[in-house]
């Protein structure tokens, strides 16, 4: 990622609009009294994973329980436990009175939210909702589109962060390579200097040896000349 692009990403994180939206989301999250345990997985996806392989179904009450209890069987909140007990009690009441009912009707009786039945996802609409089906579908589609946009933004930020990390790694590798090349260059220079110095010493020794030989030769010639001169005098 280029420096200009990384600057834009940083500006996005510190922008007033991003901070405002983040604060609102944090505040809304803190207000939740009932927290499910499915994480980012949708309710319908969880229902598909938990349904009975033989009947290809799972009761709404059991789905609600599995999505609001931890791995050790503990409820995520007291409100969630009370809602489940109310569902069971209401089901027993309907059965004892001989009334016909559906699981969605029991949910609508216990945990109703405008537009959909809370705890089963936005695709399960309340049977007592005052909104028309088309209005609820439109609201759901708009909400899903908003979630998809937020998810795409989050993925884009993750991708850009990954690019930054990759760019940093490449820069580190380049710097490491440059450092190794510089170290090798210095070693080559030191080796060359050492070889040059050794050669210089050898040349100096050779020059001295030649000079010594020449001096010895001159002395021998002078000695011979002197000897011949003395012989001629005699």
Outline the structure in words.
Pfam families: Transposase_24. InterPro entries: Probable_transposase_24. Keywords: Coiled coil. The chain has a domain of 100 residues. 74% of the residues lie in helices and 2% in strands. It is built from 7 helices and 2 strands, in the order H-H-H-H-H-H-E-E-H. It has a two-stranded antiparallel ribbon with strand order 1-2. About 10% of the residues have low confidence. The chain has 234 residues and is mainly alpha-helical.
* End-to-end CA span: 104 Å
Fraction in beta strands: under 5%
Strand ordering within the main sheet: 1-2
Rg (CA only): 45 Å
Strand and helix order: HHHHHHEEH
Oligomeric category: single chain
Helix content: over 70%
Note the total helix count. 7
Class based on secondary structure composition and strand pairing: mainly alpha
Overall mean pLDDT: 73
Uncertain parts: 113-136
Number of strands: 2
Major beta-sheet overview:
2 strands, antiparallel
**Given the C-alpha coordinates, what overall shape results?**
rod-shaped
Pfam families: Transposase_24
Keywords: Coiled coil
InterPro entries: Probable_transposase_24
Coiled coil: 135-215
């Amino acid at each position: 990622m280029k420096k200009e692009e990384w600057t834009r990403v940083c500006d996005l994180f510190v922008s007033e609009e991003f901070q405002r939206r983040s604060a609102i989301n944090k505040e809304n999250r803190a207000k939740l009294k009932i927290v499910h345990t499915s994480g980012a997985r949708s309710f319908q996806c969880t229902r598909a994973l938990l349904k009975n392989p033989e009947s290809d179904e799972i009761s709404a009450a059991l789905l609600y329980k599995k999505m609001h209890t931890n791995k050790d069987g503990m409820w995520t909140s007291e409100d969630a436990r009370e809602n489940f007990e109310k569902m069971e009690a209401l089901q027993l009441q309907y059965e004892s009175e001989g009334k016909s009912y559906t699981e969605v009707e029991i949910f609508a009786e216990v945990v109703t939210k405008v537009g959909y039945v809370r705890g089963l996802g936005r695709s399960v609409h309340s049977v007592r909702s005052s909104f028309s089906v088309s209005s609820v579908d439109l609201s759901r589609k708009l909400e899903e589109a908003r979630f998809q946009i937020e998810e795409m933004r989050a993925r884009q930020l993750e991708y850009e962060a990954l690019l930054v990390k990759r760019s940093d790694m490449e820069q580190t590798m380049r710097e490491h390579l440059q450092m190794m090349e510089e170290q090798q260059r210095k070693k080559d220079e030191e080796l060359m200097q050492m070889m040059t110095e050794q050669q210089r010493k050898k040349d100096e020794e050779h020059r001295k040896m030649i000079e010594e030989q020449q001096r010895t030769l001159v002395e021998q010639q002078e000695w011979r000349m002197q000897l011949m001169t003395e012989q001629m005098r005699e």
